[in-house]
Amino acid sequence: MKKFIILCTLCCSISPVWAAEAKLEEIQVDTSLAAIERGVDNLMNNCHSCHTLKYIKYRDLAKFGIDKKKIDEWRGDQPMDAPLASLMSDEAAMQSFGLVPPDLSLMTKAREGGADYVYSYLLGYYNTPEGETKNHIFPETKMPDPLGISTTTDHAQREEIKKTAHDIVSFLSWAADPHEQERQRLGYYVIGYLVILTLLLYFVKNQIWARLK
Predict the structure, then answer these.
(1) Dihedral over Cα of 104, 106, 110, 113: its sign
(2) Where would I find the H helices in the chain?
(3) pTM value?
(4) Backbone angles phi, psi at 73, to 5 degrees
(5) Residue 124: how many CB atoms within 10 A of its CB?
(6) What's the confidence (pLDDT) of residue 23?
(7) Angle CA(107)–CA(66)–CA(185) in degrees, nearest 5?
């Protein structure tokens, strides 16, 4: 019983430290074409070698308005309807990391905290006194620091890395629901149609009841 009380005391004493380290930074996702294009460009340079986006096709990028020349460089001889597959095979990933890196298509939807989580994770890398690279948000991560935030001390460079992380997260937020804006526009038309239909039915109902009276 005494050991159990001591264990509980230790857990309670260190849990505030975990909470402080794992605090998420809140960001405002930028849904503009410029931000999404910067985001996919940075993602293809920093993340695409290991990660896939199996629910996003090159045609989706072109439809959104991403520069066609960039898309052609990324896809090579792949068709426009091909998904954004990783440059690393699953077998090579298993040999290198011991697991296959997760698909990023729905990452901002899959993680509690959404875009804030992914942004905080990208900037959460740090170096321990022993020279190991860890992550405040997900200590168990096996992924190396993709943006180099852990080794950068210059303020201007850190701010630039934060902008890059913000753009990548903005793109991933779009990728998790690429038809959101189209669906919202359609929703306005549907609501407008229902309002007009309701008014017409209301006038028809008045006409009918006026005759019955």
Answers:
(1) positive
(2) 2-21, 33-46, 58-64, 68-75, 90-97, 107-110, 114-122, 155-176, 180-212
(3) 0.77
(4) -65, -40
(5) 23
(6) 86
(7) 75
Render the burial of 13-32: b for 16+ CB within 10 Å, e for the rest. eeeeeeeeebebeebebbee
In this structure, the chain runs to a length of 213
Domain boundaries 25-178, corresponding CATH code: 1.10.760.10
End-to-end CA distance of the chain: 83
Q: Would you kindly state where each structural domain of the chain is located, as residue ranges? A: 25-178, 182-213
Q: What is the reported pLDDT for 128?
A: 92
Please tell me the predicted confidence (pLDDT) of residue 174: 95
d(CA 115, CA 198): 39
CA distances from 108 to 19, 135, 208 (A): 21, 18, 53
Question: What is the rounded CA–CA span in Å between residue 55 and residue 61?
Answer: 12
Helix (H, G, I), strand (E, B) or coil at 54: strand
